[in-house]
Design brief:
The complex is a heterotrimer of chains A (204), B (230) and C (248). With 204 residues, chain A is α/β, with parallel strands linked by helices. Chain A is built from six helices and nine strands. Chain C is mostly helical. Chain C starts with a helix and ends with a helix. The chains are: A alpha/beta (204), B mainly alpha (230), C mainly alpha (248). Chains in contact: A-B, A-C, B-C. Chains A and B meet through helix 3 of A and helix 1 and helix 5 of B.
């Protein structure tokens, strides 16, 4: 299933300053797009706009030629968003957190246990989330990618806090996703880690 | 691939309610501090005013109600601030479940965590103010509807101010004008009962206001959250 | 006709129309108010019950009326701004708020001054109309406080519009409070079935004051909107052109 995401003339403001001015690009199945740039250049802002979390002043984002603003709920069904915040309640365990998200997003419970095992979190999945290390928290956040199995991945600095082996695991995940006709837009400070990049957007 | 057939809005709503209750349960200070505040300031009132029995029981309902509203206002920001800070709010918005329903679940959890404890210690304060037992019962009923209505209205205020830091005062400020009728009807119902007139008329207004708030608060909060998500 | 309204949504067009209208509005408003004040203070006969004290009606009623009308205006422009996303509508809402707050305060103060000889008290806490008008003042102030607290103009516009719409329930409460509950405040005088319950010699100055103050308000509002538009559009070319032309 070939999907296409097109961004046309996107202009975004943050606190009355223009951070993104008239950007256009297209992403198709099998594409890996990296967004690079210094801190504050608008990488997170543009990702959030593509994720449908921020309204854009001007410009359009269309998924398979349908404007996402027309039916944002069905757009959400095709995409997974991973921000630099982990999105888990710190007092609850990973299991409790994912059980809650399962009710919201419809994961299968067997999927949850196998994903936790794959990401080497099984030893700590019953402990309160706040007791985990930064790397473990990041891996838990990334588990959503495996659980949701959506074609479009929007990742905000996914490699931060990951050690070498976890980084490699993430790279493998992205590679297999791209090879299975998925698409991925990622903001990162480490573009050199990735192969098979379709294009790089550099913000200043 | 797409397991939406297993998704049910009811299941999601209950899961949200359960998660928020668990969350509040794990953070007891968030519940106890406002409660303690409520108790302390209300119990301190007799130190400041004439403590004749008649005076206290006349003023009691109004004073307890005012203090209840003020302490309740302190708890409102908890509704969304935690979820915003750890990134959960993004996922709640993107969850493909009706957002107003999830918000209603959050409001109910907030009421269970903040409103019910407040209602439970109000009889003690009622006794401090020399109120009769039946008056205290009326007060409890008004507080049940009143605190729930406050949770509803407060969620609108909290959702409008999510992107502002330290917004406790601002949230209370923007909600108080529309929360005043709750105070008026809540306190007046008890006073009416005390003076022998039926409490029903005031109670009808109070419950009607509560239902009215129920009809629009989740939607207003949902819109405000979607706008305020940074 | 619709084209006029459509073009009005453009800040630049609105700015030039406003500049032309404002002097006329102020002049007309001043004339009507002058007529109203002179007639009301000197030529209208004293009330059989209240004597000369009733003359404060010529300030109190117009300001109370305007305090509510301005809120209704803000509610309408909030809806226009939220639903049709017209930025200028938000500019109108922002500009109207402080004026509305002042008129509400004026209504409360003049009402209180009037109440002292009439009802024997400066304020009556049980009175539904007084209370709801006071709540209206708090709603205005809450709106102003909220706008000031949010740095992002776009978000501030939308969130405070939601707040205005939530508070709009207060308007029918104020208006119908004298009918629904027992109140010290008298009932409707002008908009009654059977015609106004007031002598024409007193009525005409009152109408003149109401219209005059409303027209004056329009002039004031347009002036404020102009300032707001200048602030919002300061990066655009037409503003820079205008400044350059004015500087010559």
């Amino acid at each position: 299933m070939i999907n296409q995401l097109s961004i046309n003339n996107l202009t975004l403001f943050r606190e009355d300053n223009c951070v993104i001015d008239n950007i256009s690009f297209t992403v198709s199945s099998g594409d890996l797009i990296l967004i690079i740039g210094p801190n504050g250049s608008g990488k997170t802002t543009i990702l959030k706009a593509v994720a449908g979390l921020i309204d854009s002043e001007e410009g359009e984002i269309a998924w398979n030629n349908e404007l996402i603003s027309n039916d944002i709920q069905s757009y959400y069904e095709h995409m997974t968003w991973i921000s630099h915040l982990h999105g888990f309640k710190s007092n609850l365990s990973i299991n409790d957190n994912l059980a809650f998200e399962a009710a919201l997003f419809g994961y299968d419970h067997t999927d949850i246990s196998s994903t936790i095992k794959d990401l080497s979190l099984i030893a700590d999945c019953h402990k309160p989330f706040k007791t985990l290390s930064a790397g473990q928290k990041k891996r838990a956040a990334l588990s959503r990618l495996l659980l949701e199995k959506k074609p479009l991945w929007l990742l905000d600095e996914p490699t931060s806090n990951l050690d070498k082996s976890a980084q490699q695991q993430l790279l493998d995940m992205i590679d297999s996703h791209i090879n299975n006709n998925g698409m991925c837009i990622m903001a990162t400070h480490q573009p050199e880690l990735f192969n098979d990049i379709s294009s790089i957007i550099e913000l200043s | 691939m797409n397991k939406t057939s297993e998704l049910s809005a009811t299941k999601a709503t209950f899961a949200m309610f359960r998660r928020d209750c668990l969350h509040y349960f794990h953070k007891p200070s968030q519940i106890f501090n406002p409660l303690l505040f409520f108790f302390m300031v209300t119990a301190a009132i007799p130190f400041a005013i004439d403590t004749s029995e008649f005076q206290l029981s006349l003023l009691g309902p109004g004073l307890i109600w005012i203090m209840a509203i003020l302490s309740y206002m302190l708890t409102l920001n908890q509704l969304y601030s935690d979820d915003l800070m750890d990134g959960c709010l993004d996922y709640i918005v993107m969850s493909r479940q009706p957002l107003p329903l999830l918000i209603l679940a959050k409001i109910c959890a907030h009421w269970v965590a903040s409103g019910i404890p407040l209602i439970l210690i109000s009889p003690i304060l009622g006794m401090i103010f020399q109120m009769q037992v039946d008056t205290i019962l009326v007060m409890i009923v008004t507080l049940i509807f009143g605190t729930f209505a406050l949770s509803l209205l407060g969620s609108i205020g909290a959702s409008i101010t999510i992107s502002i830091n330290n917004s406790n005062i601002l949230t209370s400020l923007i909600i108080l004008p529309i929360a005043i009728p709750i105070l008026i009807f809540g306190a007046r119902t008890i006073v009416l009962y005390q003076t022998g007139i039926s409490a029903l008329s005031g109670f009808y207004f109070l419950s009607a206001y509560c239902m009215f708030a129920l009809s629009f608060a989740p939607y207003a909060s949902a819109s405000a959250i979607k706008i305020g998500l940074d | 006709m619709w084209l006029f309204f459509h073009k009005l949504a453009s800040p630049k067009y609105f700015y030039s129309i406003a500049t032309n209208f404002i002097p006329w509005l102020f002049v007309l408003g001043a004339i009507l108010m002058f007529f109203g004040i002179i007639n009301g203070l000197f030529f209208a006969p004293p009330d059989y019950q209240q004597g000369d004290a009733f003359r404060i009606i010529y300030v109190h009623v117009p300001s109370a009326y305007l305090s509510m009308m301005i809120y209704v205006l803000m509610a309408i422009t909030s809806i226009v701004g939220l639903v049709w996303r017209i930025k200028l509508a938000h500019a109108v809402t922002v500009s109207a708020a402080p004026i509305g707050a002042w008129f509400t305060l004026l209504a409360l103060i003049t009402g209180s001054i009037w109440g002292r000889p009439m009802w024997g008290t400066w304020w009556e806490w049980g009175d539904p109309r007084l209370t709801s008008e006071l709540l209206m003042l708090f709603l205005y102030l809450g709106y102003i406080a909220l706008r000031a607290a949010i740095p992002d103009n776009n978000k501030a516009d939308k969130l405070s519009s939601i707040l205005i719409l939530i508070g709009a329930i207060n308007i029918p409460i104020i208006h119908f409070s004298v009918e629904w509950w027992t109140s010290l405040h008298q009932g409707s005088t002008l908009l009654k079935s059977g015609g106004p319950a007031i002598a024409t010699s007193m009525l005409y100055p009152l109408l003149a004051m109401i219209f005059g103050l409303s027209i004056y308000f329009c002039g004031l509002l347009l002036t404020r909107i102009k300032a707001e538009v200048l602030n919002r559009e300061k990066h655009t070319r037409w503003i820079k052109e205008m400044i350059r032309k004015d500087a010559k």
